[in-house]
Amino acid sequence: MEFIMKRIFFVVSICILIIHLFIVRTHEKEMAIYIDPGHGGYDGGAVGSDGTNEALISLEVSKLLMNYFEEVGIKVYMTRDGDYDLSNQGSNKKREDIHKRVKIINESDAELFLSIHLNAIGSSKWSGAQTFYYGDNLELAKSIQNSLKNNLGTHRKAKYINNIYLLEHSNKPGVLIEIGFLSNYNELELLKTEKYQDEVAYAIYFGVIDYLSK
Fold this sequence. Notes:
Elements: H1 2-26, E1 32-37, H2 54-71, E2 75-78, H3 93-106, E3 112-119, E4 130-133, H4 138-152, E5 159-160, H5 165-169, E6 174-181, H6 185-191, H7 194-212
Parallel strand pairs: 1-2, 1-3, 3-6, 4-5
Antiparallel strand pairs: 4-6
Helix pairs in contact: 1-7, 2-7, 4-7
């Protein structure tokens, strides 16, 4: 039964991708998406027990995600493409960094944005990728979360959140995706591998494709 369900999901996935390729090719203007790899530079973000930091993994997954979108003709912008932040020297760095991310996303022609992050908490028992949304972005969040569940096996659900500056102040559809817990040893080891990073990127990509195809 499990094999049959996987085959059905694979066939459905291919059908959705074909439909979306048609949508992209017939779109009046080039479709664009903004990807925001969390943290960077002075701010490494969450840190695993072995020193692995959020900023570097979020960047690697974002680059893989960019490749998937570009393969089907979608233009991709990145808030950063290296290990740096968006603040100026001597400023209130964290505040300026997030304000600049919001500004460049809002001023772009992107149809939506994806902010990629990783989690870490005091307990090692928590794991799984989760999509957070604000405002009217439930459908986008659900599409991505369903794909994360189908492709990665995560048990979590899309969650509404109202204390994320980027989500609250953007003027475009968008979500924040916590792709896993660096505080969970097994997930940490997975997240460090290129294979799993690619699986995460594909799952997010497919969720967005599903959303855009509706």
